[in-house]
Design a protein that fits this description.
The chain is α+β, with helices and mostly antiparallel strands and 337 residues long. Helix content is 41%, strand content 19%. Helix 1 runs parallel beside helix 4, helix 2 packs antiparallel against helix 4 and helix 5 packs across helix 10. The radius of gyration is 46 Å and the shape is rod-shaped. The chain binds phenylalanine (PHE).
């Protein structure tokens, strides 16, 4: 029996020292495996005198039971510890902030065009559109600018072919609309237009909003009132508006619309070139030649048209001094709006 004592001591010691399941399993194998110490002790029973064999056998059995119990106790403890360590290391902190995706917004020109459209929608206008590659006929001819007309030179045209151009203004939508619809007509036509021009205030592609109102008894007073209300709605009720006599082949009489400079408040500054006024578009009463081209009886009907630049209005509204900023798509510029 005394021979077993140091073995038991060693086992107790090794079980206590086993710091992982792997190490613990190695201890088990060494003592209780097929070629382990317990097996060896059983084999050695053969060398004992017959009367000692059963006593020693029982002692070995007791030892094996004790070893197994100790092993299982320690195994349970180690398993619990490994599990809680795993849970701790794989812990997910759901309160950590996530990755925020940047939120986009409408381009400032789209926003300005919508603001303009919203105002005219509130006045009962609907939205019309036409192609950007336009027939010379609609862009010029039907607007009282026949081939060779000097007014064609007012606009530096991109020609696509002899009879097609990149539209130089949104006015061809007037023609397209009047060819399809009978008066009363009340439309705006926002869209891209093209002219061969490039500097701080000119871009080869820019945006206009055309307006057209045809009905019985439409007068210059209606035109002036409409545009005055428009400027005041967009820029504030104390902004003054003025009309200057001008010339367009498709309106008669024709005017240019100015608003008081939004930068200096009509005192005069660099932006308004010290005049106190800024031009925002052209307008006039629809010319008889245009009514003839679309076969609308101008004894019965009259109307006005206007066209304004969206970039120009956005520049005035937000104090932007270079038109090219709209198209360079620098996020730092765009994010400001
Ligand atoms: N189409 C003209 C231009 O682009 C503006 C305009 C439109 C003038 C309608 C009068 C009537 O310059």
């Amino acid at each position: 029996m005394d021979d077993y004592k140091p073995i038991r001591e060693d086992y107790l010691h090794e079980i206590a020292a086993a710091s992982s399941l792997d190490l613990l399993y190695a201890v088990k194998v060494r003592y209780m495996g097929k070629k382990g110490l317990i097996s060896e002790m059983n084999k050695n029973l053969a060398k004992l005198p017959p009367e000692e064999k059963p006593i020693a056998g029982a002692e070995i059995g007791k030892l094996r039971n004790e070893f197994t119990e100790l092993y299982e106790g320690k195994e349970k403890k180690l398993k619990e510890r490994e599990l809680s360590e795993k849970l701790l290391s794989e812990r997910l902190d759901v309160t950590l902030p996530g990755l925020a995706l940047p939120i986009g917004s409408a381009h400032i020109l789209s926003r300005t065009a919508s603001e303009i459209a919203d105002f005219f929608a509130s006045m009962g206008y609907s939205v019309a559109s036409g192609p950007e590659v336009e027939l010379d006929y609609y862009n010029f001819e039907a607007l009282n600018m026949p081939y060779g007309h000097p007014a064609r030179d007012m606009q530096d045209t991109f020609y696509v072919s002899d009879s097609e151009v990149m539209r130089t203004h949104t006015s061809p939508v007037q023609i397209r609309t009047m060819l399809i619809h009978k008066p009363p007509i009340r439309i705006i036509a926002p869209g891209k237009v093209y002219r061969s021009d490039y500097d701080v205030t000119h871009s080869p592609m820019f945006h206009q909003v055309e307006g057209l109102y045809i009905d019985e008894n439409i007068s210059m007073g209606d035109l002036k009132g409409t545009l005055e209300r428009f400027v005041k709605a967009l820029f504030g009720s104390d902004v003054p508006v003025r009309f200057r006599a001008s010339y367009f082949p498709f309106t008669e009489p024709s005017m240019e619309v100015d608003m008081g400079c939004s930068i200096c408040g009509t005192k005069g500054c660099r932006v308004c070139k010290n005049t106190g006024w800024l031009e925002i578009g052209g307008c006039g009463m629809v010319a008889p030649e245009v009514f003839e081209a679309v076969k609308i009886d101008y004894d019965q009907y009259s109307g006005f048209a206007f066209g304004m630049g969206v970039e120009r209005i956005a520049m005035l509204k937000y104090g932007i001094d270079d038109i090219r900023l709209f198209f360079e798509n620098h996020v730092k510029f765009l994010n400001q709006f």
